[in-house]
Prior knowledge:
- By secondary structure, the protein is of the alpha/beta class.
- It has helices at 7-16, 25-33, 51-56, 68-80, 117-129, 210-220; strands at 40-42, 61-65, 87-89, 101-106, 131-142, 152-158, 164-175, 180-191, 194-206, 222-229, 243-250.
- The chain folds into 2 domains: 7-143 and 208-250, Rossmann fold, CATH 3.40.50; 152-206, Single Sheet (N-terminal domain of TfIIb).
- The strands form 2 sheets. A 7-stranded mixed sheet has the order 3-2-1-4-5-11-10.
- The longest helix is centred in the N-terminal third of the chain and has 13 residues, at 68-80.
Amino acid sequence: xxxxxxxLSSEVYDLDKPVGHSFGDVEFYSERLNSLDGKILEPATGTxxxxxxxxxxxxxxxxxxxxxxxxxxxRKNCEExxxxxxxxxxxxxxxxxxxxxxxxxxxxxxFLLLHRREESIKALKNFHRHLRSGGKLIIDxxxxxxxxxxxxxxxxxxxxxxxxxxxxxxxxxxxxxxxYTISYGRYDxxxxxxxxxxxxxxxxxxxxxxxxxxxILENVGFKDxxxxxxxxRGLYPNSSNQIVTFEAAASK
Length: 252
């Protein structure tokens, strides 16, 4: 019944966060990667918002996503810019390639979509396994702030062809012990005032404490951690509204 980054939600992502759209992360990640000569991997690369600007700056980066619809849009966006990176369908916790990367990046809270703790630990171990010794993991998380259980929010986007896509979203479950929320979203496509397509989505999102995540990374085998707030490297967070970036090196 419920999809997950299927056609409508993937199209909305591309409309809402187009290629090159930055929260400060595109510039931050570009600066952190520009000294690396080896290959970079972006799990959950989505529609290419981050991947394509990095490719255009000469970064040797490839990506994967669990959503075929997201990858389809990413490939189209790459083709429009005469780029042909390696892209493949996989999940963060189970991907397997015969490659050790210089860096693996997971920007802007995407990692939190792994809402079950065992899945997230498995993914971090998988990242560690695919990094060379000393290779970098750069990963963002969002902190938990106010949770509005049951509150309905709505947004809309106009498509290039004149269609209107609307989203009605609400948090329906909060698991305080296991540290995640579940939201339900309904996407509707309207054309000339008529509803022509609908899509339901179940959207999980995990949260971590900062020092909790530090301990998890260290237990997996990462070292030399640097914590940054809102893409100011080395600035420790002081607000729950900040994006928190962890940069660490794989110890083997």
